[in-house]
Design goal:
10 helices; 2 domains; 10 strands; eight-stranded mixed sheet; about 300 residues; two-stranded antiparallel sheet
């Protein structure tokens, strides 16, 4: 019996597969030659698309379309601060949010790096610090870091760290131009991985671009995915604040003694480690407590 079957638009005459007893190889051998050619071609095309997508993730190609969607969603609803775009040197313009200090003159500028797959006005951590620090005399500059698809893991993100390097440098350069005060680099979670990757790659040049460092929730990865690089803390002569939540991820808490030892080895007397009580990795409903911890430490730098 001959029937008509549609595949991607065109129709092809095909034989209906008999019920029972006929192997796939025999059934396929009795298909018209055109149909036999189309089936493997379609399969190869699908496989090629999957391979290209997987290769892009493995190669650390940021998802610029998703990044643009996030920028479009938040740019027009920012109530505090001004949205702007900086060029990363490749022609790609990434979102930044500048928020001016409520006190003049400003003490300096805090450049804020968000966590994995998020954005510079994220409701937890980023927004409370971006806006809250301005009440205490600090300008803030929160920037968009490279993102991948929503379910991407730490291992997926690791190759994208290099794409964050020019963004961090451009933000710090702009911060230095904007203020005569200190420039502080503040990074949460995967943002801290990206910042420390940049420091490990560029050494003294990277370290010369900022005056103090705040790392929040440092060391967070995924289950079964250990850190691919060491912390750069022992190489940082600047004052360092290591802050994490009392209910943070196990890896963050487990690595706290290692981070504390690295900070001590660097030898800056203003460097400290702080735990924010009753807080998880994202400081949900604890933004004020996180802000208090950061502001209290920044005051020791003056």
């Amino acid at each position: 019996m001959i029937e008509k079957e549609k595949e991607n638009g065109p129709t092809f005459p095909v034989k209906t597969r008999p019920a029972g007893g006929v192997s796939p190889a025999v059934w396929r051998a009795n298909l018209p030659s055109g149909k036999r050619r189309i089936m493997p071609v379609t399969a190869r095309l699908i496989a090629a698309i999957v391979w290209v997508f997987s290769a892009e993730v493995a190669a650390g190609v940021p998802d610029l379309a998703r990044e643009q969607r996030m920028a479009d969603e938040i740019e027009d609803v920012i109530l505090d601060g001004e949205a702007d775009f900086l060029d990363d040197g490749t022609g790609h313009r990434f979102l930044t949010i500048q928020t001016e200090s409520e006190i003049s003159p400003a003490k300096g500028t805090v450049v804020i790096l968000h966590g994995r797959g998020l954005h510079p006005d994220w409701a937890n951590v980023t927004h409370p610090l971006r806006v809250g620090l301005t009440r205490y005399g600090w300008n803030t500059l929160a920037i968009q870091l490279p993102v991948l698809e929503k379910d991407a893991s730490y291992n997926d993100y690791f190759p994208t760290f290099r794409a964050a390097e020019p963004r961090i440098e451009m933000a710090l350069e702009q911060a230095r131009e904007r203020t005569a005060g200190k420039v502080v680099l503040l990074a949460h979670s995967c943002g801290s991985h990206m910042a420390q990757h940049w420091i490990l790659q560029h050494g003294a040049d990277a370290l010369s671009r900022f005056d103090a460092y705040v790392g929040i929730g440092m060391g967070a990865t995924d289950y079964g995915q250990p850190m691919r690089e060491p912390f750069a803390l022992a190489r940082m002569p600047q004052p360092v604040l290591d802050v994490y939540g009392e209910r943070d991820y196990p890896a963050v808490k487990r690595l706290a003694p290692l981070r504390r030892a690295a900070i001590a080895a660097a030898g800056n007397p203003l460097s400290v480690q702080r735990v924010v009580a009753d807080s998880d990795h994202y400081f949900v409903d604890r933004g004020d407590a996180l802000l208090e911890a950061v502001v209290g430490w920044l005051d020791t730098l003056q």
